[in-house]
User: What shape does this take?
Amino acid sequence: MTTPRRLPKGGEQGDFFAPTSWQSLTAACVEVARNLGLAVETEVYVGRRIWGARRRIDLVVTDPTLRRSLGIEAKYQRTSGSAEEKIPSTIEDIRAWPIPGLVCFYGPGFSTNMRSFLQASGKAVELRDLETWLRLYFVLPAPRGGFAVPVDAPGEDASEDEDTADSSRPRASSGG
Assistant: This one.
């Protein structure tokens, strides 16, 4: 198993691993969830796919007090390639799960078009946004200082002003 690298302090949300493989992305997702006090099970089998293969959810995150669960499929892509072609079927497969689910993705190999597709699907979140997503889904308190505004990813237009910024991202509140 590849040893994950740490992100520099002051980087993305929280202090999680900068994954270098699917295994380390899964470990980073587990760390984010457990740091929020959520229970995590990995490699959970839930029935079969239409062609007979066993259906597996990478992570099932649960808040025992709310008795609410969320499945997470981890998708890492180091280089561009055919793995991207499987993502739409993964999004479709999540609909057949017995619990709500989403894809957590990370890696330099995702094309701009695939990143846009994933973000627009409403069923995917980048690793850097996972903590915020889990806090909102499980109705957990905001971190001290409010939700972090993510640093623009490479290739994003950093010249957007507040009027045209993505309104789907949480913004830090100005008062209490």
The longest helix spans residues 22-35.
